[in-house]
Amino acid sequence: MKNILFSFDDMTAKDKAAKQAARYFSRAGANVVQQDVSAAVKRSSGVSYREMSLTFADSQQVVLRIKSSGDIFQVLLNGKVMPIKNQDDHAKAIAEIAQAMDAGRSKFQKLLAAAQAKPPAGLRTAAPRIEQALVEKRDALVAAIADVREQIAALAPTALA
Description:
By secondary structure, this protein is α+β, with helices and mostly antiparallel strands. It has two domains: 8-112; 125-161. It has three helices and six strands. Strands 1, 2, 3, 4, 5 and 6 form a six-stranded antiparallel sheet that branches. The longest helix is centred in the C-terminal third of the chain and has 34 residues, at 127-160. The mean pLDDT is 80.
């Protein structure tokens, strides 16, 4: 018996099946924070499909490629193809995907932390100018302290007399 959620022609991010898929993921411990369904029908390996993208609270992403029959054709977990056993039973398939997300969560978080965001080439930061201003201020303070010490040294012998 097939337990299929999706209707290929009626798929949108706000339809009943999309909300139910998000609910199944929540029950499996993966909270969906954003979901999107592509309007365009794509074709790969002789199969027409539409994509449902899901982004989760821990920044992991799942793309479900759904065939015209409503079956899940392919699953991409964080951009990598993931084989699933239960493509005809969506509740079990979602549980499988959530398990894979849990298993790879620490590795994904490490990769996310290692990827450093680089500022755009045209963007200039104020750090060099701030550093130069602080160096000039420090040098001025060092000179002022030296001047005060000279004045103290000049006054010290006369105070003893």
